[in-house]
Amino acid sequence: MRFLIVDDHSLLRDGLAALLRQLGPETEVVSAADGGEALELVEAHADLDAAILDLAMPDMDGAAVLEAFAAKRPDLPVIVLSASEKAADVRRVMSLGALGYVPKSASHQTLLAAIELVLSGEIYVPPLLLSEGQAVASNVELPKLTPRQSDVLACVCRGLSNKATASELSMSEKTVKAHVTAILRALGARNRVQAIAIARENELVR
């Protein structure tokens, strides 16, 4: 796998590169300090698997870089890593084509889980988005989850992918998927994001 890191802070780029190499010995990382350099690297490396992009940069902001990526490489998955924890910023970059948004305050585990989720073809939306404007089924009679389903739901609420949940709970990824399907059905949720909202609203997880 080959990743592109775009951030104007060298220490953060170096730290992210070291973290990404935990995904496997074959992982390669290229990095850019600004948007212009990032666009050059996207053109030079057709084999990029994903890009991790900061929002606040001096020459062109992350939103502008996202739009340029969409024009040059619409197939490139982009995950925004930002200091902002505003739901409006999350919605903005997702509308521009980002497939994930991770606050810089998140744990390394959460970032890796978000990356794995995006690489598997899914979208990672942080729990902070649930605090504004989310339709949540509250104050309704919810069916009780089994202890194992509660464990899986707790992992989902932490932003873990099915693969990471399977590893943490020592079960197969297929079993995790089955539990997630059952949880969504039990909660009346259309997707994982809504399931998290319902779980938090009804205090199903701690």
Task: Explain what you see.
The protein has a 5-stranded parallel β-sheet with strand order 2-1-3-4-5, sandwiched between helices. It contains 9 helices and 5 strands. It has helices at 10-20, 35-44, 62-72, 87-95, 108-119, 147-157, 162-169, 173-187, 192-201, and strands at 2-6, 28-32, 50-53, 78-82, 100-103. The chain starts with a strand and ends in a 5-residue tail after the last helix. By secondary structure, the protein is α/β, with parallel strands linked by helices.
List keywords for this structure.
Arc Repressor Mutant, subunit A; 2 domains; 9 helices; alpha/beta; Rossmann fold; globular; 206 residues; 5 strands
List the helices and strands and how they pair.
Layout: E1 2-6, H1 10-20, E2 28-32, H2 35-44, E3 50-53, H3 62-72, E4 78-82, H4 87-95, E5 100-103, H5 108-119, H6 147-157, H7 162-169, H8 173-187, H9 192-201
Parallel strand pairs: 1-2, 1-3, 3-4, 4-5
Helix pairs in contact: 2-3, 6-8, 7-8, 8-9
